[in-house]
C-alpha cells in the first residue's frame, strides 16, 4: 500500500510503530470553554500568545508515561478509544454475530488481540513459515516471489507499488511506484552524523540484532545480518528523494510505460514482478522517484542473495513484532516507542489492539462508532460552518491586492467546485471476502493486509471512485485531497474542543472553523495551487501571479526557518511551508466568517473576553499540546506540521485582527515587522 503523497492532513498521525493513544485528566469546567485556569496571565498576549493562553497548563501538565505527547488531540483520541471500548464491551463475548457483519469482524479481531496467553504461547510461530520461505530462497527468482508476498501482507521492502489517481487525469487510477524500504523514519537517519542521529542509528542496529537472536540466530550471525541490513538500507537512503523535494508535485510525476521502466531500471525483472503481483499488464505507471528506482536495479544486481534474504526477514520481523509475544513487542517498543518518541511505557493491550483494528478494518469500527456517537444534527451544523467559510474565502479572493482578475476567476472556480465530506462515508467500504476469525491475532492482521493490498492493486486502470474516504470516521484529524478537490472532516474531530454545538460562535469559529479554513487553504497552498478545480495538475495561474505567490510563500518559509523546535534544531521552513500557509489562511478565513455572526457584531464580552479575544483563545486551545523532546526531534525531520507553539504564534503574529483584539503594538514580539510580514490568502 502506498502512503498518499497528496493528502494534506491537519496533523500527523502515528508514525513508526505503535499507534499513539491517550488517557485524560483535564481542567475544564462546565461553561468554561476557554479554560481560564490553563492560561498564564503573567505573560503578555503581545509577547507570547501560546504561553499566555496555555502557559499554566504547559507548566503543570506532565505527559503521561505511555504517551509521547499530550493535549487536545491526544485527549480526544483517547476519549474516542474509550467510547469504542464501550461499544466492544456491549458486543461482549457473543460469538453468534453473522459472519462478515461489522460486529463479527470487530468482535473476533478484538478477541484474538486480547488473548494474551495464546499470543505469548505462540512466540514467533505466526511468522515462522514465512521466515522459512525466505530462508529457502536460492536465487533472484525466489527473491522476487517473496518480495511480492511481503509487499502484499507485511511492509514495502525496496519500494512500494499500488494504485493512485493520475496527477494529470484525476478520474483515472494508474499504477504508482514509490521509494520505500527503510526501517528508520527518514533517510537523514542513515546519512547524518550528529550525536542524536548516531545514537538512534546505533539503537536501530541493536534492535535488528536482538530481533534476529529472538528468532534463533547466534550473536555473531545476528550482528552480521544487522550490519548488512544497515548497509543495504543506507544505499537506499542515499538514492531516496528528500521530503522537501517530494512536496513538489512536478518532481514526483514521471509517467512511463513498462518498457520505459525496464530501460530505467534494467536489472530488476519488472515483467516477472508485475506478473507475480497479479497485475501482469499495469499500463502506464507513475514512477515518483526515478533516481531511486534506477538504484533498485543496482541493488538486485550487486547485493548478495544472502543479504537480500536477511533484509526480507527483517521486513517480516519488524512489521510483525508489535503483534507477537512480549519479547518482540518489548524490543520493538524500546526502539520505536522509547528511543524515537521518548514514550516511557507501553499502552495497555486493549488500546494497542483497538489501534490495530482501527488501522486494518477501521471502517467497520467506524460504522459502529457513528451509529452511537455522531448525532445527525452535527453534520448539518458543520456543513453550515463550511458554507460560511467558503463565502468568506470567496470575498477574500476577490479582495486580494496582489492577484490579477484572471487568476482570481480561476481560484473562485476551484473554490466553488470543492467537494465537502463530513462525518462518515455515504457508501461504506466493502470487506466482502475478508476472513476474520477467532483463531489467530496475527493471522487476522495478515489477512486484512493482504485483502487491502489486493483491493488497492485491483484499482489500477480503473476509474477513480471519488466517494471513497481516506480516513476512518473515528479519526481525530481532517484532510484536503487535491486530486478530488475535496475537504474531509471525520466525525472524530467534530467534538469539543474543536466543535461544540452548545458553545458560542467564537469557540466554534476559533476551533473547527480554523480547521475548516486550514483544509480549504490547502487547495491554494504551494502544492494545492498546482491542481485545478477538477483535481488535475495544471498551471492555472498567470506567470506574474505565480511569481507573486512564490515571493509571499518564501517569506513564510523564512519566518519558520528561524523558529527553534528543540535544543539546537530549528523548524524546517520548506518542509512545513504548505501547513504554515494553511494555518495562516485558515485563521483569516474563519475570522472573516465569524465577523458575520451576531456574537461578533454585539461585541459583548463572555467570561471577561470580547468575541474576538474568545476566538483567538479558542484557537490556542485546540493547539494546547506538549511533546517530549525525542518526539520533537523526530517531528522536525519527518512532520510537515510545525510544533504547536509555532502553529499558534506563527500565524497569529501575521494576523492584524489578532493584534487589534489584544492591543498588540508595532515592535511587540507577536507582531511581525512590516519587512517580514506575510499575507497570502
Ligand atoms: Zn494541513
CATH superfamily of the domain at 124-323: Neutral endopeptidase , domain2
* Main sheet attributes: strand count, strand direction, barrel closure: 4 strands, mixed
Tell me the helix content. Answer: 40-55%
| Strand order in space, largest sheet | 1-8-9-7
By DSSP (H or I, 4+ residues per run), the number of helices equals 27
CATH secondary-structure class of the domain at 124-323: Mainly Alpha
CATH architecture descriptor text of the domain at 124-323: Orthogonal Bundle
Low-confidence parts: 14-30
Average residue pLDDT: 94
Name every ligand kind in the structure: zinc ion
Can you tell me the CATH topology of the domain at 124-323? Neutral endopeptidase, domain 2
Strand content bin = 5-15%
Amino acid at each position: 500500500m502506498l502512503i498518499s503523497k497528496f493528502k494534506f492532513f491537519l496533523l500527523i498521525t502515528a508514525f513508526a510503530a505503535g499507534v499513539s493513544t491517550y488517557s485524560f485528566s483535564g481542567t475544564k469546567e462546565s461553561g468554561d470553554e476557554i479554560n481560564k485556569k490553563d492560561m498564564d496571565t503573567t505573560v503578555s498576549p503581545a509577547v507570547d500568545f501560546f504561553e499566555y493562553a496555555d502557559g499554566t497548563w504547559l507548566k503543570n501538565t506532565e505527559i503521561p508515561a505511555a504517551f509521547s505527547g499530550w493535549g487536545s488531540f491526544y485527549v480526544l483520541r483517547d476519549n474516542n478509544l474509550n467510547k469504542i471500548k464501550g461499544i466492544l464491551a456491549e458486543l461482549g463475548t457473543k460469538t453468534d454475530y453473522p459472519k462478515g457483519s461489522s460486529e463479527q469482524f470487530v468482535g473476533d479481531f478484538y478477541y484474538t488481540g486480547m488473548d494474551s496467553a495464546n499470543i505469548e504461547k505462540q512466540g514467533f510461530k505466526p511468522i515462522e513459515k514465512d521466515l522459512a520461505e525466505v530462508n529457502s530462497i536460492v536465487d533472484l527468482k525466489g527473491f522476487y516471489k517473496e518480495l511480492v508476498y511481503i509487499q502484499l501482507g507485511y511492509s514495502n521492502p525496496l519500494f512500494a507499488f499500488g494504485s493512485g489517481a493520475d496527477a494529470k487525469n484525476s478520474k483515472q487510477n494508474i499504477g504508482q511506484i514509490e521509494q520505500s524500504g527503510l526501517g528508520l523514519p527518514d533517510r537523514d537517519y542513515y546519512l547524518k552524523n550528529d550525536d542524536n542521529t548516531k545514537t538512534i542509528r546505533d539503537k536501530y542496529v541493536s534492535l535488528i540484532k536482538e530481533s534476529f537472536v529472538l528468532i534463533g540466530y547466534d550473536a555473531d550471525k545476528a550482528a552480521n545480518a544487522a550490519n548488512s541490513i544497515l548497509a543495504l538500507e543506507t544505499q537506499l537512503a542515499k538514492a531516496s528523494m528528500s521530503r522537501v523535494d517530494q512536496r513538489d508535485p512536478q518532481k514526483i510525476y514521471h509517467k512511463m510505460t513498462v518498457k520505459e521502466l525496464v530501460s530505467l531500471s534494467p536489472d530488476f525483472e519488472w515483467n516477472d514482478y508485475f506478473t507475480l503481483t497479479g497485475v501482469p499488464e499495469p499500463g502506464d505507471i507513475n514512477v515518483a522517484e526515478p533516481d531511486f528506482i534506477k538504484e533498485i536495479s543496482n541493488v538486485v544486481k550487486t547485493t548478495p542473495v544472502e543479504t537480500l534474504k536477511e533484509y526480507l526477514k527483517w521486513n517480516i520481523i519488524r512489521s510483525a513484532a508489535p503483534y507477537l509475544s512480549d519479547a518482540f513487542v518489548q524490543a520493538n517498543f524500546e526502539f520505536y516507542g522509547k528511543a524515537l518518541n521518548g514514550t516511557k511505557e507501553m499502552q495497555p493491550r486493549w488500546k494497542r489492539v483497538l489501534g490495530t483494528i482501527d488501522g486494518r478494518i477501521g471502517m467497520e469500527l467506524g460504522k459502529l462508532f457513528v451509529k452511537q456517537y455522531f448525532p445527525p444534527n452535527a453534520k448539518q451544523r458543520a456543513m453550515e460552518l463550511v458554507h460560511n467559510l467558503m463565502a468568506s474565502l470567496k470575498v477574500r479572493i476577490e479582495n486580494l491586492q496582489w492577484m490579477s482578475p484572471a487568476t482570481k476567476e480561476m481560484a473562485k472556480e476551484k473554490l466553488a467546485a470543492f467537494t465537502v465530506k463530513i462525518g462518515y462515508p455515504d457508501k461504506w467500504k466493502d470487506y466482502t471476502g475478508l476472513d476474520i476469525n477467532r483463531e489467530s491475532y496475527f493471522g487476522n492482521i495478515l489477512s486484512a493486509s493482504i485483502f487491502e493490498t489486493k483491493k488497492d492493486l485491483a484499482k489500477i486502470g480503473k476509474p477513480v471512485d471519488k466517494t471513497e474516504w481516506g480516513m476512518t470516521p473515528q479519526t481525530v484529524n481532517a484532510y484536503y485531497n487535491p486530486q478530488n478537490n475535496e475537504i474531509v472532516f471525520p466525525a472524530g474531530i467534530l467534538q469539543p474542543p474543536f466543535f461544540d454545538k452548545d458553545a458560542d460562535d467564537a469557540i466554534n469559529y476559533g476551533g473547527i472553523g480554523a480547521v475548516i479554513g486550514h483544509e480549504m487553504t490547502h487547495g491554494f497552498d504551494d502544492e494545492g495551487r498546482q491542481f485545478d478545480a477538477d483535481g488535475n495538475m495544471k498551471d492555472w495561474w498567470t506567470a506574474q501571479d505565480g511569481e507573486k505567490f512564490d515571493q509571499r510563500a518564501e517569506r513564510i518559509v523564512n519566518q519558520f526557518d528561524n523558529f527553534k523546535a528543540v535544543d539546537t534544531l530549528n523548524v524546517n521552513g520548506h518542509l512545513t511551508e504548505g501547513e504554515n500557509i494553511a494555518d495562516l489562511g485558515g485563521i483569516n478565513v474563519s475570522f472573516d466568517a465569524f465577523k458575520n455572526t451576531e456574537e461578533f457584531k454585539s461585541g459583548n464580552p463572555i467570561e471577561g473576553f470580547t468575541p474576538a479575544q474568545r476566538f483567538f483563545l479558542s484557537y490556542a486551545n485546540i493547539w494546547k499540546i506538549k511533546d517530549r523532546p525525542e518526539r520533537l526531534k523526530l517531528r522536525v525531520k519527518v512532520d510537515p506540521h510545525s510544533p504547536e507553539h509555532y502553529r499558534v504564534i506563527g500565524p497569529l503574529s501575521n494576523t492584524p485582527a489578532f493584534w487589534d483584539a489584544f492591543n498588540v503594538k508595532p515592535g511587540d514580539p507577536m507582531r511581525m515587522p512590516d519587512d517580514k510580514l506575510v499575507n497570502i490568502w
